[in-house]
Every structure is written in C-alpha cells, then in structure tokens.
TrEMBL record:
Entry's Gene Ontology BP terms: methylation
The protein, known as: SAM-dependent methyltransferase, MidA family
Protein source organism: Lentzea jiangxiensis
Origin superkingdom: Bacteria
Pfam families, A to Z: Methyltransf_28
Record key words, sorted: Methyltransferase, Transferase
GO molecular function term, any single one: methyltransferase activity
Amino acid sequence: MFDWEAAWHAALYGPGGFFARGEKPSSHFRTSVLVGTELAEAMLALLSRVDAALGFPPVVDFVDVGAGGGELASAVRSLASGPLGERLRVTAVEVGPPVELAGVRWVREIPSCTGLLVGHEWLDAIPCPVVTGPSSDPWITRWWPSLRDGEQAEVGAPRDAAWAAAVASVRGAALAVDYGHLVSSRHFSLTGYRAGRQVPVVFDGSCDITAHVALDACAAAAGGEHVLVSQRDALAALGLSGSVSGSGWDWLESASRAGRIAELRDPSGLGGFGWLLHGCGVAVADLLPPLPPWRPNPARNPFP
C-alpha cells in the first residue's frame, strides 16, 4: 500500500526535499505576507492587545511558525516601535536554511512563547495520510463523515496534533491563518505548486505539496477558548479598512495602501482565509470583537 504521508513528508522535508533544500514560498506563490507590510501591521495590532492582556511582560514574543523566507517576522520586527518594540523578541521557526535578518532569531523547533504565535500557511504544509472511502479511520469518521465510496480524503490528524502542541507552548494567543474547509464542506484538495502555477502532485521534491486544512478539527484538538473567523473580518477589526484620503502624493500613497488592503480582504481570495485564534490564558474577547463565523469558499484554489 502506498504511504502518502511518508512520500509527502520526504518530498518536502527529506534530503533534497522542496523546503529542506531552501525553497521559499515567495518564489512559488503569492501569500498575504508578500502583498505588503499591512499583514505585519495587523499582527502588531493583535500582539499589542495580547501584550496588554498579559500585563506587559518584560519580554513579549512574536513567533512565526513555518516562516519561509522570514518576510512576516522581519516586517513585524522592523515596524515594532515604542515600549512594545523595546521588549519584543521575534523568532522564526523553519526547517529550511535560515535567512540573515536583523533582529530575528531562527530555530527549527517551536519554542515556548509569551505573546503571539502565528502559523501563517503552516498547517497546509504538514503532510497527512490519504485514504479512500469507505474508511474506518476514526478521524474520518468524526471529521469527514460525507466521504463516499471511491472518494479520497486527507486525514488531518497530524495537523491537529501539530496545532495542539503549538498552542500548548503559548501563554498569550496562538493564531493559525490558512485556507481550508469545514466538516460540512470537505473536499479532496491535494495539489502541487511550482513557480506560481498549480501542477500535478509528484513526490520528487520538485514542487510544493499542499492541501486544505480542516480548521474546525484543529480547533477542537487544541481546545480552550477560540474563534474561527475570516481574514476579511479580522483585518477590519484590527483597524485595516483601506480608506483613501489626502491629496497629491499622500492620496496616491493612501490609494496604494487601500489597494493592498483590498487584496488582503478580498472574500474570493486572501480575505477568505480562516483565522483560528486561541486565547492561551487571555480572553479572546480582549483580542477581537464578536465577528461572524468563517465560511470557506470550497470552489477556490488555495492560492490566488
């Protein structure tokens, strides 16, 4: 029997694997991190609320799990200022070769975190077993009950375990940002990406291999107080509305920023990503106001 999980893991993280050899997401697909610094601004706004809820500890962490080229970690470090910036420790967690970035430390394992841990498009890169229905796998029984005879499904248990372990390392808040699906809308989504194009899945290390994340299952595995909302709504709640003002060059800069925010909040694109936010010793209500629950668009491709 073909071991999908082992082949997937070797293709990404084994010797000569896609990420192990140093491939960076920025070379292959566009993510929110690559649009501009606005996502980092939102992370700092959220971190400021976490910091206040923790009572302003002497050192406050921003941990970027699956950091890729370190774009998000670097932007957060460079934008942070004032008392928060003076106490901020930024850590990039990545299995590939580190990138030299001022003020960012690189590690291979998730450290303890007092502050905000973010897994931005991390869970989709965790390999999973693949089964064909009918299946008696307990994860499938609970989280993919609609699986029909002959249909394939990714078993999200490894992602559940990884997210639960990450959340357990945090005092403050943990945030997973990803594309995905809910138990009511499961669909087989395993695919490959190379140089900005969707390609057939091959396990030779030549492409990224990814699949939608069962964020509802991850939420249940980690437990505790949490919310699952859309990126579109979360960014607005953190102050990124994209209004245009001023005149002349100020207007042009404002319009450019508004365009970037509009891309981040596009409900048919990046704005449709799910934000799974766990409060770890702090109340989620202190971090985000009540927002509509996330409703994914199962028809869209993972990356715009």
